[in-house]
Design a protein that fits this description.
- By secondary structure, this protein is of the alpha/beta class.
- It has a domain of about 210 residues: NAD(P)-binding Rossmann-like Domain (Rossmann fold, 3-Layer(aba) Sandwich), CATH 3.40.50.
- Helix content is about 40%, strand content about 15%.
- β4, α5 and β5 form a beta-alpha-beta unit.
- The chain is globular, with a radius of gyration of 19 Å.
- Bound molecules: NADP nicotinamide-adenine-dinucleotide phosphate.
- The site of NADP nicotinamide-adenine-dinucleotide phosphate has 27 residues, from α1 and β4.
């Protein structure tokens, strides 16, 4: 199949949604996006009618409730938005012969292992966010077996601040900066996800689950230290480049349990496309250069 000609993105104000618009439009693809106001996923019964107003041959759902602790306190809503809505959107795509891409997460796993996780490993979410996203994968594929489910982790990107931006902001202001040191995953550049997704969408008959992330894994503490080291090299004035580590246990802001180790294996994606994702720290440096040197 050729590259998609008309892409509709759900999640117009989100980190990945906005990156998709910028990159796909830059690649000459007709891409538009719907915001939360345009289409409220908490009303799955309205989704088909709303989507019928738009022309597209690929629908990419980046939207969802991504605040893990909010999901824990509002599991019913999370199940509707993250769990049921993808099924309704996928069913509409089946009716009109469009492709559907559901963005999912490493949080579908329990994080109990210490090796990169492959797509066929059992899912066992430890919190409401993970349960709702797993439900979303399942409802999407049940409605449209040709759907693509792309699991990503620890996204950072130009359009919306995330962990590295927060830690840099803290290190500009104070000497004591800390982060969790007993949770590991693969930080991933939203721009890279857009490119990898396009590679998949440009291929014939690709369906099913793929893990998409930059290579290598780190703890939040290591991720923070890398961000501070790169920022300092780029001339960002910081009070420290050290990040003190602390464990997840007893960390007050965390209401929900988090999986400890969720580095994803991208071997399936590489075998299919020949693309080897670059390392997370190279991608992070690229991002921070773009952000701090283009001002
Ligand atoms: N960020 C990460 O580190 C990460 C890691 C793993 C997986 N993921 C997955 O990757 C996807 C994209 O992540 P992201 O970082 O781009 O997320 P994001 O920046 O939080 O964007 C999520 C989007 O969903 C929209 N949304 C929330 N509730 C909605 C509703 N009821 N109806 C319609 N839209 C709604 C939000 O709009 P409003 O802001 O206007 O409500 C926002 O535009 C998500 O599906 C997430 O689960 C993210």
């Amino acid at each position: 199949m050729p590259a998609p000609t008309k892409v509709l993105v759900l999640g117009a104000s989100g980190r990945l949604g906005r990156a998709l618009l910028r990159i796909y439009r830059g690649a000459g693809i007709s891409a538009s996006a719907l915001s939360h106001t345009d289409l409220d996923l908490s009303r799955p019964e309205d989704i088909a009618t709303r989507l019928a107003r738009y022309e597209f041959d690929v629908l990419i759902n980046t939207a969802g409730i991504t605040d893990v602790d909010y999901c824990e306190a509002n599991e019913g809503l999370a199940m509707t938005v993250n769990g049921q809505a993808p099924g309704a959107a996928a069913a509409h795509c089946r009716e009109r012969g469009a492709r559907f891409v559901q963005i999912s997460t490493d949080y579908v796993f329990d994080g109990a292992g210490r090796e990169p996780i492959t797509e066929d490993m059992p899912c066992k979410p430890v919190n409401a966010y993970g349960r709702s996203k797993l439900e979303g994968e399942q409802t999407a594929v049940a409605a449209l077996p040709e759907a693509l489910v792309l699991r990503v982790s620890w996204l950072f990107g130009i359009e919306k601040s995330s962990f590295p931006d927060r830690i840099i902001r803290q290190a500009r202001e104070r000497l004591d900066v800390s982060a969790v040191n007993d949770k590991w995953a693969c930080p991933t550049y939203a721009d890279d996800v857009c490119d990898w997704m396009l590679a998949l969408l440009s291929m014939d008959d690709v369906k099913g689950i793929f893990h998409l992330c930059n290579s290598g894994a780190c703890s939040w503490q290591e991720y923070g230290e890398a961000a501070l080291t790169i920022a300092s090299q780029l001339g960002v004035p910081l009070k420290t480049t050290s990040v003190r580590g602390h464990t997840m246990e007893g960390f007050a802001p965390f209401l929900a349990a988090r999986p400890a180790y969720t580095a994803l294996s991208t071997a399936k994606f590489t075998a299919l496309t020949g693309i080897q994702p670059r390392s997370w720290d190279a991608a992070l440096e690229d991002y921070l250069r773009t952000k701090h040197l283009s001002r």
